[in-house]
Design brief:
alpha+beta, 7 strands, rod-shaped
Length: about 100
């Protein structure tokens, strides 16, 4: 039994695990925490910036909204219901597009 313990003592130490990710086609060695973060979000959402792996900036979408505005020449509604147009009026409602 003592020979088993002697053999275990003489074993070489295990090499440390290297954590790598692929960002923009390049394989980069990172820490375990950074690798878990990249795996969580996805490798395609990261870029190399000045030798460092960072999240891509999120581009805010420009959403267009239509508003019903009263004033000027526009539509006249039956019982103030915008789904039932009765005709045109001098002080009517018009759809105008706004951006966020």
């Amino acid at each position: 039994m003592s020979k088993v313990f002697d053999v275990l003592k003489n074993l070489p130490p295990l090499p440390e695990k290297k954590h790598t990710v692929t960002v923009q086609g390049k394989i980069i060695e990172v820490t375990l925490q950074k690798k878990l973060e990249i795996l969580k979000h996805g490798e395609e959402k990261y870029i190399m910036k000045q030798g460092e792996v960072v999240l891509k900036p999120v581009v805010k979408a420009k959403i267009r909204f239509n508003k019903l505005v009263k004033g000027g020449k526009g539509h006249k509604f039956v019982d103030e219901n915008p789904f039932w147009i009765d005709g045109e009026a001098e002080e009517g409602y018009t759809w105008q597009t706004d951006t966020e």
